[in-house]
Amino acid sequence: MHALIGENGAGKSTLMKILYGMQKPDEGTIAVDGEQVTFSSPGDAIARGIGMVHQHFMLADNLTVLENVVLGGEKLYGIGAKARKKIQEISDAYGLGVRPDALLEDLGVADRQRVEILKVLYRGAKILILDEPTAVLVPQEVDALFDNLRELKSEGLTVIFISHKLGEVLKVADDITVIRRGTTVGTADPKTATTKQLAELMVGSELPSPETRESTVTDVAMLTVEGLTLLESGASGAPLTTAAPADPSVTVTVHEEAATGRKLLDDISLTIHKGEILGIAGVEGNGQTELIEALMGIASPDTGVITLDGDDISKTSVRKRREGGIGYIPEDRHRHGLLLEAPLWENRILGHVTEAPNSKRGILDPKAARKDTERIVREYDVRTPGIDVTASSLSGGNQQKLIVGREMSHNPKFLIAAHPTRGVDVGAQAQIWDAIRDARREGLAVLLISADLDELIGLSDTLRVMYRGKLVADADPATITPEQLGSAMTGAATGRLEGTEEQPEDGDAR
Amino acid sequence: MMKIDKDKLIIGAAGPVLALVTSFVLTVLVLLATGLDPIEPIRLMIENAGYSDVQVLIVNQTGIYYLAALAVAIGFRMNLFNIGVEGQYRLAAMVSALVGAAVDLPGPLHILLIVIVAIATGAIWAGIAGILKTTRGVSEVVSTIMLNAITTSLVAWLILPKNFGVQPAGSNDLTTGQIAESGWFPGIDMGDGGQIYGFTFVALALGVVYWFVLNRTRFGFDLRATGESESAAQASGVDAKKMILTAMLISGGLAGLAGMPILLGESHTYSLAFPVNVGFTAITVALLGRNHPVGILFSALLFAFLDKASSNLDVSGYPKEITQIMQGIIVIAVVVSYELVRRYGTRRQQQKVGEELAAGGAIKTDKEVSA
Questions:
Q1: Does the beta carbon of A342 lie under 8 angstroms from any beta carbon of chain B?
Q2: The whole model's pTM is what?
């Protein structure tokens, strides 16, 4: 099992794309089983026994596991009993525990990943490439995945594992290659190497830690949310019947619908003080996205009151909320944070078009906006040849730094940071953490939503766990372990999560 | 950085050039396949364009296409496909002609009234599609096509003599009655060549306004942002529904103006002979012009040339329909070549950015300086 690590933009994905035949190398050779090969398409790579499990699953929700696996590989074992038998065989051989007839949409993330792995094995892969396989998993699931991978290894398969979570790499890999800026900068033996050494190899600097040093929590509430509830059929989804869509202001309708419509957000109440970072832990899809949308004003909740700095903003528009001091680092920067085809300086205007320095009295001020973009690029270390390139030509980390810079430039009172360092390299990660910490010291209230439990525990002053649209548990980040948090995220634990030490009941009193 | 800008210009021009060359070559092939001399009709057309009366016709037609194409383009800029420009244009021309013929006002006021009625009619007609989309989620493509069909019937019904139509003595034509001379927009007399519609200059001025609104106002930024990424625009605070409705209203208003050059400058009435298909041609014009006011001007000019310079090809024994073939091929070629060029451009830029970063061409940052 070989691990490939490196910063984002270091060339990991490019290398993998070449190995999988999605891209052609300009120079150099690839050898499989000692035999030199050239791939011009993923088909060639598959024929050579190379399979890839992508970071974003390529599965169809409305099909069963069996159908997903045979899709595109119908010629191998047909689509009937023979295919089913083969799937069962593979599943048993490697302990994947996949049920061929389960509908994919009923499966959790970890199960889907196993289906992806099975799909690759079904096509006869001997070499598996896994691209950031642990990014979406909770710690328990990561362990289970590693067990599966060890199983594969013992059966003689080769696994190439791409990651930037160094701890995991050390735990599971037999050999480690570090790449930086497109070249191999070193190899390491996981038996002797430490995460610190690896990180230094990766970025040429010290490993950043998300640890927040001193508490800056005040007792002035910045954001209060009370009884926030959002029903599935309510705001965004189209009504199933031909009846008129439910009017959120008519409470009678809402209560009637409550019996049928699934609650995406269920009676959420929370308070974030000035200078406080409130972390929300939870497996993705448990209402975090809806919570953000409700706070931003993109979705209109069915009930509940949102108060920002003493003003009721429950009914205010997105733009007014942003002008009122809500900063937003979206979870999906491509969909919600950037205009990919637009130049950087126009992206700097996005979301703040009504605010200085971007415009005056309805007229844009491109000169000022450009100047300020240059400042952001400088201060937030956005690596770009200029501000006229499109956002899509930057790497993910640099895109994210631009977004963080933009949001921080408007002195927000309250920042929604959803996965602020997802897909961001270690260097940029530290800078983003610094920016959030600095702002917190100035009295910024932050809602932090992240799948990276170390980040959550390290940055947050208070932790809440979200499960099925409800805040089910809270914890003190000073004492909680990722494992404890992980079990609460799967709904196994509720209420106050106690760490190993006795803690005062009030999380703010720390 | 200058280099990237130059690249951008070349890539921007590559799409239309590629499309035009492709369609030209294909048209020549069609002519060859039918056993005709492929070069002669083109020579004839260029020769035609040398006459001053044809030139005036071309300029006038350019103004009409320009207005209609701006209407299409503003929709395109926010991912709305207003196919209904044709219907909005015809209904607006008819209603404003009716109102114009019915009232008697002093000069400028008369013209202003006709223009405002035209804008309002076009906007309301397009607004129906806008409201259907925002309240019921009906695709504007479907609803505007339907509205086009309704327009045809509505206009045919309204122009009946028992309703509002007037039948001039000794003619089969039906009109909406003559607008008094106070409602005529003065043109520029070109002597033998005829008159250039004064409204053509209004059209050009609107091109400038279009550019300014889109590129220099908050509203324009919101509109473009919505077109580029609706989800990002929404998260940035754009009210998507309001934006859709506003864009449809503006698009319809502009479409309504497309009938004004002829109505105010030449026909002074809406008749059965009023030009049709302007709105459909405008879609191609906007596409070829990349929704940019200058690009649209050139493509409007090209289409006006193809229309007007081809009119006497029949006399020389060549079917003038070849220009329609050419226009049709341009539509397809434009779509394909733009996508090709766009992909190439994106890839190229990513490579360039990578190279420049690797070569240390990045803007020096504080962090690096202090390190």
A1: yes
A2: 0.77
